[in-house]
Specification:
- The protein has a single domain (12-187, 205-397), classed as Growth Hormone, Chain: A, CATH 1.20.1250.20.
- It is built from 19 helices and no strands.
- The chain has helices at residues 4-9, 12-29, 36-43, 47-75, 77-98, 103-117, 120-128, 136-144, 149-164, 166-172, 174-187, 200-206, 210-241, 245-261, 263-273, 275-293, 300-328, 333-362, 366-397.
- α7 (120-128) packs antiparallel against α18 (333-362) and α8 (136-144) runs antiparallel to α15 (263-273).
- The model has no long low-confidence stretch (mean pLDDT 86).
- It is found in: Membrane.
């Protein structure tokens, strides 16, 4: 996958800085999920409250991605990333020093963590603008593998909370962010082909395009499933299989690592076989995995295997969607990344909150998982219906016209 032409085509220091910034931002974005068992014990939360708690940062991140996308086009991705990182570090340190003393304050912290989730709309354009169409899938897959930061939270947060208390973990999280911030400031560089900023009203033009809405819907399923599960699995394994919070965190980390590190593979497969073909397979596999996971499996280990399979399918789908986006919207990639990322976060909010609601109402997570499996199949039907038009019209509409598009 990593050919000599790939390294010659882009800017490797920027790609690494984008990955690290994205990775550690995602670590804190989902921090309430791995800390959820401890927080729920402190404030005596029911399943619906736990589900909503972990969903709030996801929704806040979804909305703020649109804001970040507009900022990227106006002031550039590097400056936008610097502002976002400073806001998150200040929020974490303030929460640590002042304390988090109620459920409503936890939700307020979740909104601040949403700024970290908006890093998606910064890191991907930062990397994308350095690479030609034939390497977009792999470049954005590598930058997007920062999804793995959610695994770091699941891996370390529960054990640190057990040792130092969950409020202190909030302060500790600022330390690795500071390291990523320094790397970002030193190595990240805006690409020279940055498009001229548009008037605010012009950004709405993207939403007048059917293709943008299709990409938003497709990513709402792949990334929505990924981040919704990333936020919820520690609580899920603890509630369904009575695993201790630390063990549940390890299981969650395994699922997230599987989904994160296959994202570049999904992008590379889309570069080779086409994003449409790759996504078609992804949706079938994701729906199958989520449907099987919805049943009470005989052990936590079996559930782990099935959920890892599901997360790998969703992770590959994330890479495939962002192989397609810059081929159609290269000149508007900043705002398109924002709106597409927004619906991805919205899908994650839906899954995380619906899992909590299903558990509260029915005593089982099955309804939430089956509903999302149905959304994956619905996305497959939509993609099947639109792919012929894309293959006919995109070579003329794409700013990369003349290059061989892989659809």
């Amino acid at each position: 996958m990593l050919s000599r032409s790939f390294f010659k085509a882009g800017h490797t220091p920027t790609l690494f800085a984008a990955f690290l910034y994205f990775d550690l931002s995602f670590m804190v974005w989902v921090l309430l999920g791995p800390l959820g068992v401890a927080i729920a014990k402190t404030f005596h939360l029911n399943p619906a409250e736990k589900g909503f708690m972990v969903a709030v940062p996801v929704l806040a991140g979804a909305v703020l991605r649109l804001v970040a996308g507009v900022m990227v086009d106006h002031i550039g991705p590097k400056k936008t990333g610097i502002i976002g990182q400073l806001v998150v570090m200040a929020g974490l340190l303030a929460a640590w020093r002042l304390g988090v003393n109620s459920y409503h304050q936890v939700l307020a912290l979740g909104v601040i963590l949403g700024v970290a989730g908006a890093s998606f709309a910064v890191a991907l354009p930062l990397a994308s603008r350095w690479y030609p169409p034939e390497h977009q899938g792999l470049a954005l897959g590598i930058a997007g593998a920062g999804n793995s930061g959610t695994a770091l939270a699941a891996l370390f947060a529960p054990s640190l909370a057990q040792t130092y208390g969950w409020t202190n973990v909030i302060g500790l999280a600022a330390a690795p962010l500071a390291v990523a911030f320094l790397v970002y400031v030193i190595f990240a560089k805006d690409a020279p082909n940055r498009p001229a900023p548009k008037r605010l009203a012009e950004y709405l033009d993207v939403l007048k395009t059917r293709d943008a809405w299709w990409l938003m819907a497709l990513y709402g399923v792949t990334f929505g499933g990924f981040v919704g599960l990333s936020s919820s699995l520690t609580i899920y394994f603890n509630a369904e299989y009575a695993l201790p919070a630390v063990t549940a965190g390890f299981f969650t980390a395994a699922c997230v690592f599987a989904g994160s590190f296959i994202r570049p593979v999904g992008g590379a497969l889309a570069d080779r076989f086409g994003g449409v073909r790759t996504l078609s397979v992804v949706y079938v596999l994701a729906a199958l995995g989520l449907a099987v996971a919805s049943f009470q499996l005989p052990s936590a280990w079996v559930a782990l295997a099935v959920l890892m399979f599901s997360m790998m399918a969703l992770g590959a789908g994330n890479g495939a969607v962002f192989q397609l986006a810059p081929q159609r919207f290269g000149k508007e990639i900043g705002v398109v990344t924002g709106v597409v990322g927004m619906t991805g976060g919205a899908g994650g909010f839906y899954l995380a909150s619906s899992l909590g609601w299903a558990k509260q109402v029915t005593g089982s997570y099955q309804g939430g998982l089956l509903a999302f499996a149905g959304l994956a199949l619905l996305a497959l039907v939509g993609l099947t219906g639109v792919k012929a038009r894309w293959r006919r019209t995109w070579p003329e509409l794409s700013p990369a016209a003349g290059a061989a598009l892989r659809l």
